[in-house]
Amino acid sequence: MTTTTTSATASVAPTSPNAESTLPATAKVPSRIAGPRPTTGVPFTRLVHVELRKMLDTRAGRWLLIGIAAIIATALTIMFFNEGGQHSFEEYLQATTMPMAIILPVVGILAVTSEWSQRTGLVTFGLEPRRMRVAWAKLLSALTVGVAAFALALALAGIAHQAAITFRGITADWGIDGLVLLGAGGYVLLGIAQGVGFGMLFKNTPAAIVVYFILPTAWSILGSMVSWLESAAAWLDMQHTMQPLFSGSLTGEQWAQLGTSVSLWVVLPLALGIWRLTRAEVK
User: Fold this and answer.
1) Structure pTM?
2) Is residue 232 part of a domain?
3) pLDDT per position as a tens digit, 156-172
4) Which keywords does this chain's UniProt record carry (predicted)?
C-alpha cells in the first residue's frame, strides 16, 4: 500500500541551540484531498425521511401495515352487513381508528429499537453524531405516520358510510362532535408517541412491546378493582381520562386529569427515552 506525498518540505528546528535534532531536516507530508469541504451537517428533513423509511420500508413494518389494513377491512365489512349497515359515521370512524391506535405504536417501537437489535446504530450515529436530532427525527416521523393514518381512517370511514347509504339504503348520519374527532386523532397520535418513548427507554424490541401493552393495561385493571387506587386512576389512567373526549364534553377537572395522565404515560417515557438515547453506548 502506498501513500501519495508532495515534495513540500517542513523545516524542523532543534529544541535548543546546543542540542542536535534527531528528526530529519525535511519531512514529507500527505497531499490534501482535492474537492470542496462540507460546510453543513445532514439536513433535518433528510433525517426525517430516513426514519420514515425505517418505519415503513422494512419487512416488519410492511406486515404490520398489512395486518392493520386486514383488521380494518374485516371490521368495516362486518359493520356493512350487520344491522343492515345502519351505523353512523362516528361508529365507522371508531372501527377504523381503533386498530391503528393499537398496532401503529409497535411500528414506532421498531423504528427505535432496530438501531440496537439490527446493529444499525453505528451507521446512524456515525453519519449524524448529534443524537438529539436523530431522536427528534424519529418522533416527528412517527407523528407524521400517525397524522397520515388518521387522515386515511377518516377517508375510509367516510367511504364505508357512503357505501352503506348508497347500497344498503340507510339513513345518513354524518354528525360528529369536534371533541370526538380530537379524541380519535389524539388516541392515534398519543399512542404512537408513547410507543416511540418506550422504544427509546428500553432499546429492546420484546421488552418495549411487552411493557407498552402490559403496564398500562395492568394499571387500568388495578385501578378498577382496588378501591384505594380508584382516585389515583382517575388522574393517572389514560384510558379512563380519554373517555370524556369520545363523549364530546370535558370539564376543567377532566382536562387536568387528561394532562396528568398524558404527562405520565407519554411525556415522561419520551423525556427519559431521549435522555437515555443520547447517552447509550453504541456497539
Assistant:
1) 0.80
2) yes
3) 999 999 999 998 888 88
4) Membrane, Transmembrane, Transmembrane helix
